[in-house]
Amino acid sequence: MHFAADVKSLEDVRDLHALVNKFRTDAQDALASVDLAIRRASDYLSDQLTFWRAAVRKCEEEVFQATQELRQRQYVGFDGRVPDTTVQEKNLQRAKERLRHAEEKVATVRRWMTRLPKQVAEVYDGPARQLAATLESELPRALAVLENRIQALEAYIGLSVPSAPREGPSSSPLSSDAVPTPSPSPTATVAPGPSPAPSASPSASIASDAALAPSPPSSASIASDPSPVPSPEEAKP
């Protein structure tokens, strides 16, 4: 089942890839440094065991020498006096203390040489192997998948959005003689109601008045009429 990723920023995905890669490198360096520290601790214990064994042998020689000096000092002289052996006894005591200290160190080093591998095997080896396997196998696959996603997002961002086609003239060109017919003007819709009585237009009324008015006499009728036209004096009563 695939789920869509809500990617807000490509730079954040790139930063994630860089951080995961840095974590892998740092973790590998940390594992290498821990392994080196364990080897150094083992080498240190081996060196300490060698050193304290040599110190034990040296202290044993000092104890033997101090014992011999004490015995030689304990001999009674010719005069029968018992010599003072305080210095020899103190030297022997110090040699024995140094020998005991060296032997304790040898026992401590041997104990840690046995304990360190057990602690490493119980506490460190298992998780370290799991982490190393993750760093060597799983993280490279995750980085490869993340790299593929980054490339896909970059390709997606690089895509250009196609522009909408603009409406052009018709495929059949109009002839130069063709006259575009005007579109009929929209008529206003009038709500139905009582229709008013038709009123005569001004032109119709003028025409009717002209028909009723007497027409002036023509020149031909005047010429044919023999009756003289009365003068103004005759017209008076």
Structural features, described:
The chain has 237 residues and is mostly helical. It has a domain at 12-158. Helix content is 67%, strand content 0%. It contains 5 helices and no strands. The protein has helices at 10-73, 86-158, 202-212, 219-224, 232-235. Helix 1 (10-73) runs antiparallel to helix 2 (86-158). The longest helix is centred in the middle third of the chain and has 73 residues, at 86-158. The radius of gyration is 66 Å and the shape is rod-shaped. The model is unreliable at 170-182 and 184-237 (pLDDT under 50).
Topology:
Layout: H1 10-73, H2 86-158, H3 202-212, H4 219-224, H5 232-235
Number of strands: 0
Q: Tell me roughly what share of residues is in helical segments.
A: 55-70%
Uncertain runs are 170-182, 184-237
Report the end-to-end length measured between terminal Cα atoms.
Answer: 130 Å
Q: How is the biggest beta sheet arranged? A: none
Order of helices and strands: HHHHH
Based on helices, strands and strand pairing, what is the structural class? mainly alpha
- The multimeric state of the shown protein is single chain
* Rg, nearest Å: 66 Å
